[in-house]
Write a structure and sequence with these properties.
- 25% of the residues lie in helices and 30% in strands.
- The protein is an alpha+beta fold.
- The chain has one domain: Elongation Factor Tu (Ef-tu), domain 3.
- It has a 6-stranded antiparallel β-barrel with strand order 1-2-5-4-3-6.
- The protein is globular and about 40 Å long.
- It starts with a strand and ends with a helix.
- Pfam families: Flavokinase.
- Keywords: ATP-binding, Flavoprotein, FMN, Nucleotide-binding, Transferase.
- Pathway: Cofactor biosynthesis; FMN biosynthesis; FMN from riboflavin (ATP route): step 1/1.
Length: 138
Amino acid sequence: RAPVVYGFGRGSKKMGVPTANLDPDVLEEELGSMRKGVYFGYARLPADEKHAAWTKCVVNVGSRPTFADGDGVTVETHALRDYGRDFYGEDMEVVVVGYLRPEMKFDGMAALVNRIMTDIGLARNALDDPGHRRRADD
């Protein structure tokens, strides 16, 4: 659980894949045991009655090697639903239930977006498993 902070503005504006960037400082302990890469799980906005239910998500934990415009690790969460609004400053909860792949550097934006779409499809299929949903509910 961490507040949503501003990122680089690429996700929704340039790539068509909006992300909620979670404050990595708040998640320092959790990030210490995670390898850089792409994960899947469930996310929710617990303080928002309309969006408090768990929804499938893909989470990138890494340093964005395709772009050379930032230091440190980011936690970018792409919820597989449209919230219909921004929620900067609100807390988002994420339950990671699986790992898709390690962090990779791509030869450009198009290759990165293609792989993100593949990751989303893989995550969606994996999260159809009822066992994963039970882990989030627990």
